[in-house]
Specification:
CATH class: Mainly Beta
Number of domains: 1
Number of helices: 0
Strand content: over 45%
Number of strands: 9
Distance between the termini: 20 Å
Structural class: mainly beta
Shape: globular
Length: 114
């Protein structure tokens, strides 16, 4: 998983490694943090999904969409963890910008963009 918690100056970058994930994802969430999983279509593989807390719009967090094998099926997901609880907005991709997301304590929020 490629994930950073830092501001960006509006530029794109790649991480130079693409592989298919087949293991389980372990999310370290709890009383003050929750997880976020976004299910996407294959064309977003390798692209970044970026969110920010509504209360702190300059604190951008992003992660890449990866191909995964789950129950013998190929799926494409972006896994964020851990995120402090609160309301977040999607800032990227542009066609999803402004979409609100609520992160709850000890829970995984799932979004289906397929």
């Amino acid at each position: 998983m490629s994930q950073h918690d830092r501001p960006h100056a509006g530029y794109e970058h790649t991480h130079g490694h693409e592989h298919i994930h087949s293991g389980e994802v372990v999310l370290d969430i709890g009383e003050e943090r929750g997880g976020l999983v976004v299910y996407t279509r294959g064309e977003l593989r390798g692209q970044e999904i970026e969110v920010f807390p509504l209360a702190e719009p300059t604190r951008l967090t992003h992660t890449d969409v990866h191909e995964r094998i789950f129950n013998e099926q190929t799926i494409f997901t972006a896994v964020f963890t851990p995120l402090p609880i609160g309301v977040y907005w999607v800032s990227r991709p542009a066609d999803r910008a402004g979409l609100p997301i609520t992160i709850s304590p000890g829970r995984v929020t799932e979004l289906d963009w397929r």
